[in-house]
Amino acid sequence: MISRIVLSFYDRVLDSDVLAPYFEHVDMPVLIDHQTKFIAYLTGGPASISDEALRLAHANRGIDRAAFEEMRRLLAETLEEHGLEPADVDSVMAEIDRRAGLVVTR
Amino acid sequence: MAAKPAPKGLDLDRVRALLLDSATVGLAVAAGAEGPILLCNDAFQALFPAVAEAEAALRLVDIVPGTADPAVLERLAAGDRHTAEVEVKLGRRRLVIAVEISPAIGHADGELMIQCQNVSKLKELEYMIDSYSKMIERQNRDLAKEKERVERLLLNIMPRRVYEEWREFGITTPERFDDATVLLLDFVGFTEMSVAHDPPKLIAELNDIFTSFDRIVEEFGCERLKTIGDAYLAASGLPEPNPEHARNIARAALRLVRYLERRNAISEVRWNCRIGISSKPVIGSVVGTQKYVYDIFGPGVNLASRLEPLCGPMQILLDDRTHELLAGELACASLGSQTIRGFGEQHIYRLEGTTSGERP
Questions:
Q1: Interior angle at CA A29, CA B51 and CA A62, nearest 5
Q2: For position A49, which CATH number holds?
């Protein structure tokens, strides 16, 4: 279930005109690793990321609000498509929104 | 398998071409590793669009680097297959293509048959599993560290052997120790000391002193069992038997006094201790079910605690059994018999030092 969410989210990100450029020069293993940790982190899996680590990891990526919103939209879409309860999707989104300030730098 | 004669009116070449192009596996034939791609199907072109787009015919080695390596060529010449994975960028995607190259059957001119498949999804899964394993490994390492920390904490409140019994069986059984020696130390006029009214300073002082005490008693084969306020309780011969228990405790006691003397000479706060030592039997057990603590009870502890208030500052008093066990190895002064509550008449000795007058 989690693996399907990870791979489906990965596909959507690479198909998105807004997000794909951010990952253009990122190797597949690195990108998958990133997505896996991200989804595991959101679903309470074996990854914990401190706010500081999150901020550092996104510091030089030049992420703008539009990219953040696109990522948010694609994630919600992926989670809904994989049958997560709307209440669970909402709580994931609330967690994402809480950290927007750490990720958006432009 | 022998080819059947074609039914009348059927264009066999067209059927072959259709079969080739409807295959989901990319198929191509090349005129050797460094020769051009001679023909390929649609699936092959979809994976390597450059084959159709390039002006000059693309060579196999341009698509699959390493094909012209002598070792690979040798393998192919021997009729063996060569497999490789190639990463190609298709639009925004980087695809991983599994390629298998083999000598084309029935062609002696060195033509090579190439089969390829997009294994990106498999690779993605593989990378994802790697990523998960690494996360879990990290988590296991963190857990192991945490377990070690908990173990260290538990070893602070119970001896290792008792901890191991508790870990294995979930309970520990009380044990009687006939051959053990107990030391009880406390400080003279503790409640009246000015430092006693300055809690942070008091804690800092006691922490420093008890940490040094722990090091000293451990050095002498003894174990600290607990501290209660300014009192310090240590024992030797439990839970592990130790025939030297009385000597260990006596030597540790002399060292504790010497440590305080040295500390007092340079420290602003002066600490004077009194030490009672007894070698009467004790019972050792973990007490409590929610809050664990390993404790000792019985005559040994009681007598040591009754002897300790009888001491003068920086003195060490022994019961007669401890004195007997020391067998003259350490200098002691007899203080005669005294009545001690709960024990009646007891012969008491003061520990002076080593027989040569030196202190350990």
A1: 100
A2: 1.10.490.10
